[in-house]
Amino acid sequence: MEKPVRFGESGEEMFGVLHIPECKTSYPKPAVIFCHGFKGDKVGPHRLFVKMARRLAKNGILVFRFDYRGCGESLGRFVDTTISSQIDDTLTAINFVSQLKRVNSSQLGLLGLSLGGAVASCAAARSKQIKALVLWSAVADIQKVFLSQRPEDGSLEQINEKGYIDLEGFRLGKEFVMEVNQINPLTEIKEYKDLVFLAHGSEDEVVPIENIESYYDTVITKKCQKHIVVGADHTYNSYEWEKEVMEKTQQWLIENL
Questions:
Q1: Which residue in 10, 33, 65, 235 is a FRET match for 120, CA 20 to 30 A apart?
Q2: Is residue 222 pLDDT above 80, yes or no?
Q3: How far apart are CA 196 and CA 182, in angstroms?
Q4: What is the pLDDT of residues 44-58, one digit of tens each?
Q5: What is the pLDDT of residues 95-153, one digit of tens each?
Q6: What secondary structure does DSSP assign to 79-111, as a single string?
Q7: Cis, bond preceding 28 (omega within 30 deg of 0)
Q8: How many domains would you assign to the chain?
Q9: Contact 16, 207 (CB under 8 A)
Q10: How many C-beta atoms surround the C-beta of residue 26 within 10 A?
């Protein structure tokens, strides 16, 4: 069963979808919360989050995928989005899911893609409720990755004048830009002591593969597994790459959550 829900504070509600397992085994169930990437939404590239959620639900794991404020169907404006606000939104989602009667709050997982991986790392460390953390193509050095992707038309230099950068119709606010060098997921993830699964495409040009190595070398827990999808790009844009990352993640979550 897939159930749309709104959650969060009045006037700033976020929109999400619960994937509730339809099986005969008893509740409560383990649950995984998805964190989408920069300029993304709860559907994911080539419906990756939808496919992954349905896979997990068929295997008895409840899934919650949602839109950050200012993204997808949630309230708010993208121009007001910051990394800190997305971390806060993730913590709100964790709190929401942990209180569901169908969920075993001691079996919570968090899955983040790209910038959502950096956000998930910070949220997992701060929450203390996450048992299993999955990072797909996760950004480790936010400042370096952001600067490598910045527009070449002088937009960054004009942000003080306009208050935002126009990114193909998305207005990236000054507050987001100013915060880029203040959030360090590698520093934060040192406070996370539980299970970690890392996946990355070997040919990722958006978030280079060095980022997964940085996470792997930094996490304190010895219960960390990494998987390289050979030939894959940033968001696993082929059927075989998509299948591989989903199957490996599903297997790991079933075994460890």
A1: 10
A2: no
A3: 24
A4: 999 999 999 999 999
A5: 999 999 999 999 999 999 999 999 999 999 999 999 999 999 999 999 989 877 666 66
A6: GG--HHHHHHHHHHHHHHHHT-TTEEEEEEEEE
A7: yes
A8: 1
A9: no
A10: 6
**Residue 168 resides in a domain:** no
In a domain, 197, yes or no: yes
Which amino acid appears at position 184 of this protein? Answer: N
Shortest CA distance to 19 belongs to which of 127, 85, 100? 100
Find the distance separating the first CA and the last CA of the chain, reported in whole Å: 21
Report the C-alpha gap between 161 and 145 in whole angstroms: 24
For residue 92, give its domain range. Answer: 2-141+184-256
Q: Residues 64-87: pLDDT tens digits?
A: 999 999 999 999 999 999 999 999
Is 27 contained in some domain? Answer: yes
Domain annotation covers residue 175: no
- Residue spans of alpha helices (H) in the chain: 48-58, 83-98, 115-127, 142-148, 159-162, 174-179, 185-189, 210-218, 239-256
